[in-house]
C-alpha cells in the first residue's frame, strides 16, 4: 500500500454550520470535495500521530463511500488506530460514547441528522473532539480556514476494507478495527437506568411503540428494548437503517412521525410512544392522546432523574437552548440548582458538562442529553422516560399532567418557514433588530412588550462571547416569542419562530388557542408575510 499526494483546489463553500458541513449529496459527490474537507479536519489535528480516530455515520446515502475515503485519508496521515462501526454505522451519541471510552483524539461523524437522505437528499460531515462533543467554534473556524488554502490531500491507495466483518485489518501504517456499533453504547445505558425495573414493566404487560424511522437507532433500539429489556418483538418498527430512510423524513415530530401519532391518538393506543431521528440524537415522546413537547420532556426528566441509578445523587444543574421553553428553569428553581440558557447548538453545552456545572441539558428541537456523552441522545431519553414510568408506576399522560399541576404549563409551539429566500429571511431579521430599542412598552394584540433583545451568550466557563443568536421578545403577560434563522438546512434559509405562553391554572386549553395572541404579535412585530411572502408556516411543531 502506498500513500499518494493528490493535487487539489479549494472549494469556497466548505464552512461548517452549527452541526458540521451539510450539503446536498450531489455537492459531496463532486471530485475531491469529500477529500478536501476530511484532509482539512486532519490538518487541524497537529498532534494526531499515533492516536486513535473514530469513524462512523447514520447509514444514509453515500455513508459507506465516505467512510472508506475517510479511513484511507486517516491512514495516510499518521493515525495508528481507526475505529469504525460495522457497516459504517455509528449513531451520533454512540460515536461520542466510543470516542470517550477509547481515549480517541476525536471522531469523524457522517450525518445530516434529521434531514432527508437519498441520492438527492442531504449529507454531512462533522468533527467531534476528545470529549466526544461537536468541535467548538475555534476548531470549526480553523477547519474552514484550511479548506480555503488546501492544495493537496494524502490518501492510501488500497482496496476498500470489509466493513461488515468485526475485527482488525491493516490499512497502510494504521490498524482499522471494525467494532459492534451497539455494544459500548448499550453497556453505558445499563449503568444509567434501571434495566431490571424496566424489564419488569414490560413483563407486566406494558405496551410501547418505538419508531426508528428507518434510521440508525433501529439496531440500538432492537438490541436494548427487545433483546435486553424484553419488550415484545415488533415493539420497534422501521428498525432497519436505509440509505433513503425508506422515503421518510427522519425528523421525530408529529408531522413526520404521523403513523406513530395516529397510533398514539387512536382507540387502541399503547402505553407509551417514542421515535428517534436520522442519526439517533433526537427523540419524540408521546403519551396516549398527548404529545409531549421536547421542552416539557426535558423539564419532566429533570424532575424525575433521581429515580434512575445514574442520577441518584441529584443534578448539578440543567441547561437549555435559548429558544427552548422555560419549563426546565422552573424545575431547577424548585430543586435549588443552577439553570443555564445557551445559544442553539449542542457544542454550547460541552463546556458546562465538562466543568461539572450541569448534568442534564436539552433543546426544543427534540434533543435531550446528560453528562454521559457530549451529544444529545434520543434513545437514552426514551430509556430515562421508561425508568421514571417504572419507578412511579404512573401512566405517561398522568406524569405530564401531574407535572403541569405542580409547575404550571408552558404552552409552546415552533413555526418553521422552510426554504425561504436567504435575502428575504436576512432582511426580516435585520429589520427586526432595527426595531428592538422601540419595542418595550408597545401593546400588540392584547400583549405588552416588556423587553426585547438580540440574544448574546457569555460562556460562564471560559468567558467566550457568542452574539446575534436570535431575537427575543418578552411580554408582561409571561409570554415570549423568539425569531431565529436555522443553521441546519441545505437550501435557502429556514426562519424559525418560537412561541411560548405560561399559565399556572389553565392547564388543558388547546395550544393554538393559548398561543393565538402570541402568533398575532409575532406577525405584527416582524412582518413575516411582508418579508417572506408566506402566510403560513411550512411546519408547526
From TrEMBL:
Q: Which Pfam families match?
A: PGM1_C_vert_fung, PGM_PMM_I, PGM_PMM_II, PGM_PMM_III
In its UniProt entry, the species of origin is given as: Methylobacterium terricola
Q: Which reaction does it catalyse?
A: alpha-D-glucose 1-phosphate = alpha-D-glucose 6-phosphate
What does the record give under GO molecular function? magnesium ion binding; phosphoglucomutase activity
Broad EC category: isomerase
Q: Which residues form the Alpha-D-phosphohexomutase alpha/beta/alpha domain?
A: 14-153, 184-286, 295-407
InterPro entries named in the record = A-D-PHexomutase_a/b/a-I (IPR005844), A-D-PHexomutase_a/b/a-I/II/III (IPR016055), A-D-PHexomutase_a/b/a-II (IPR005845), A-D-PHexomutase_a/b/a-III (IPR005846), A-D-PHexomutase_C_sf (IPR036900), A-D-PHexomutase_CS (IPR016066), Alpha-D-phosphohexomutase_SF (IPR005841), PGM (IPR045244)
Q: Which UniProt keywords apply?
A: Isomerase, Magnesium, Metal-binding, Phosphoprotein
Q: Which domain of life is it from?
A: Bacteria
Q: Supply the PROSITE patterns for this chain.
A: PGM_PMM
GO CC entries: cytosol
The record, for NCBIfam families, names: PRK07564.1-1 (NF005737)
User: Any idea what this protein is called?
Assistant: phosphoglucomutase (alpha-D-glucose-1,6-bisphosphate-dependent)
Amino acid at each position: 500500500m502506498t500513500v499518494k499526494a493528490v493535487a487539489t483546489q479549494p472549494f469556497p463553500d466548505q464552512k461548517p454550520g452549527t452541526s458540521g458541513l451539510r450539503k446536498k449529496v450531489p455537492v459531496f459527490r463532486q471530485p475531491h470535495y469529500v477529500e478536501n474537507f476530511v484532509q482539512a479536519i486532519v490538518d487541524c489535528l497537529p498532534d494526531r500521530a499515533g492516536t486513535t480516530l473514530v469513524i462512523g455515520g447514520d447509514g444514509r446515502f453515500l455513508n459507506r463511500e465516505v467512510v472508506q475515503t475517510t479511513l484511507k485519508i486517516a491512514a495516510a496521515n499518521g493515525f495508528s488506530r481507526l475505529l469504525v462501526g460495522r457497516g459504517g454505522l455509528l449513531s451520533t451519541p454512540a460515536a461520542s460514547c466510543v470516542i470517550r471510552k477509547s481515549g480517541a483524539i476525536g471522531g469523524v461523524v457522517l450525518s445530516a441528522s434529521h434531514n432527508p437522505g437519498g441520492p438527492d437528499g442531504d449529507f454531512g460531515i462533522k468533527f467531534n473532539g476528545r470529549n466526544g462533543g461537536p468541535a467548538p467554534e475555534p476548531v470549526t473556524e480553523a477547519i474552514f480556514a484550511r479548506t480555503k488554502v488546501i492544495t493537496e490531500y494524502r490518501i492510501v491507495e488500497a482496496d476498500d476494507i470489509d466493513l461488515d466483518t468485526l475485527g482488525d485489518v491493516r490499512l497502510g501504517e494504521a490498524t482499522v478495527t471494525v467494532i459492534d456499533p451497539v455494544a459500548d453504547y448499550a453497556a453505558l445505558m445499563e449503568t444509567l437506568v434501571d434495566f431490571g425495573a424496566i424489564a419488569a414493566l414490560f413483563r407486566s404487560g406494558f405496551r410501547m411503540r418505538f419508531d426508528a424511522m428507518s434510521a440508525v437507532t433501529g439496531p440500538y433500539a432492537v438490541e436494548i428494548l427487545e433483546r435486553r429489556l424484553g419488550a415484545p418483538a415488533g415493539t420497534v418498527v422501521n428498525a432497519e437503517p436505509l440509505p433513503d430512510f425508506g422515503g421518510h423524513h427522519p425528523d421525530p415530530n408529529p408531522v413526520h412521525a404521523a403513523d406513530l401519532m395516529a397510533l398514539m391518538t387512536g382507540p387502541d393506543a399503547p402505553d407509551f410512544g417514542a421515535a428517534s431521528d436520522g442519526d439517533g440524537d433526537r427523540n419524540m415522546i408521546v403519551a396516549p392522546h398527548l404529545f409531549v413537547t421536547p421542552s416539557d420532556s426535558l423539564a419532566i426528566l429533570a424532575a424525575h432523574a433521581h429515580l434512575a441509578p445514574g442520577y441518584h445523587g441529584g443534578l448539578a444543574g440543567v441547561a437549555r437552548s435559548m429558544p427552548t421553553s422555560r419549563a426546565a428553569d422552573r424545575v431547577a428553581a424548585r430543586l435549588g440548582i443552577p439553570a443555564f440558557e445557551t445559544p442553539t447548538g449542542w457544542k454550547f453545552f460541552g463546556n458546562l458538562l465538562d466543568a461539572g456545572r450541569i448534568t442534564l441539558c436539552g433543546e426544543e428541537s427534540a434533543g435531550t442529553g446528560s453528562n454521559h456523552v457530549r451529544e444529545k441522545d434520543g434513545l437514552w431519553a426514551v430509556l430515562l422516560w421508561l425508568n421514571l414510568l417504572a419507578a412511579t408506576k404512573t401512566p405517561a399522560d398522568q406524569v405530564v399532567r401531574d407535572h403541569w399541576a405542580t409547575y404550571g404549563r408552558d404552552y409552546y409551539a415552533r413555526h418553521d418557514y422552510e426554504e425561504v429566500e436567504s435575502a428575504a429571511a436576512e432582511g426580516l431579521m435585520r429589520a427586526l433588530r432595527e426595531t428592538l430599542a422601540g419595542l418595550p412598552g408597545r401593546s400588540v394584540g392584547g400583549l405588552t412588550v416588556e423587553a426585547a433583545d438580540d440574544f448574546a451568550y457569555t460562556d460562564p466557563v471560559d468567558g467566550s462571547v457568542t452574539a446575534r443568536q436570535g431575537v427575543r421578545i418578552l411580554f408582561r403577560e409571561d409570554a415570549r416569542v423568539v425569531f431565529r434563522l436555522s443553521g441546519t438546512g441545505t437550501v435557502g434559509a429556514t426562519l424559525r419562530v418560537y412561541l411560548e405562553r405560561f399559565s399556572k391554572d389553565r392547564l388543558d386549553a388547546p395550544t393554538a388557542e393559548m398561543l393565538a395572541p402570541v402568533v398575532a404579535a409575532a406577525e405584527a412585530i416582524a412582518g413575516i408575510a411582508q418579508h417572506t411572502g408566506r402566510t403560513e408556516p411550512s411546519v408547526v411543531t
